Amino acid sequence: MKIYTRTGDKGKTSTYTGQRLSKDDAIFNALGAVDALSSHIGFSRVYCKQGLISQDLKSIQCNLQDIGSVIATPSSKATMQQLQNVSFSSGHISSLESKIDIYTAHLPPLTNFILPSGSECSAHLHVTRTLARSAERSVVPLLHQHGGDIETVFKYLNRLSDYLFTAARYVSHEDGVPEEIYTRQTIDDSK
Ligand SMILES: Nc1ncnc2c1ncn2[C@@H]1O[C@H](COP(=O)(O)OP(=O)(O)OP(=O)(O)O)[C@@H](O)[C@H]1O
What we know:
By secondary structure, this protein is mainly alpha-helical. The chain has a domain at 18-93 and 119-174: Hypothetical Protein Ta1238, Chain: A (Up-down Bundle), CATH 1.20.1200. The chain is 57% helix and 3% strand. α1 packs antiparallel against α5, α2 (51-71) packs antiparallel against α6 (150-174) and α5 runs antiparallel to α6 (150-174). The longest helix is centred in the C-terminal third of the chain and has 25 residues, at 150-174. The termini are far apart. The relative contact order is 0.17. The model has no long low-confidence stretch (mean pLDDT 96). The chain binds adenosine-5'-triphosphate. Adenosine-5'-triphosphate binds next to β1 and α1.
């Protein structure tokens, strides 16, 4: 089977429920944002030397695949079977929270803004964190009409940006690269 069908060439494409909608519909905007997020997680994983974080990232990519299915399945058009196929458990949120707590316990307390940087993997994780927040924003228009497990998905994406922030700090710490603290830059206006 060919990867291209040309059926999307006129600007419409399909949901999991078979509806044909414009490609600029909020559903595809959110799907695209989640795809960008997962792709950048893959990019971060390439640079990650910490086995535990690398495993987490792979498992998060699998969850994002499932999240894409929730997004592609508006409940008003879905059968019970389709909704069951794409269910997304709130247990994934608790799992992220436990990981955040474990990694935070290994880090110095946060007393200042830190600059998004650090080791190579850490810098990628900070960019990935911004994509998680972008994906989170893209789901907002779906929150009140979409149904299914979209609220769980939204909470997961919200927690995911916290996880990625913590993971960025943790890998930099483990890679031996000190955090850089924000300092207000002063300008001498008299010159
Ligand atoms: N630009 C897009 N952004 C986000 N999601 C998309 C986009 N285009 C398609 N999708 C989603 O991804 C699925 C697979 O994409 P695909 O490129 O095969 O769709 P298409 O453009 O409708 O078909 P084709 O590329 O064969 O013409 C689609 O069924 C749709 O749910």
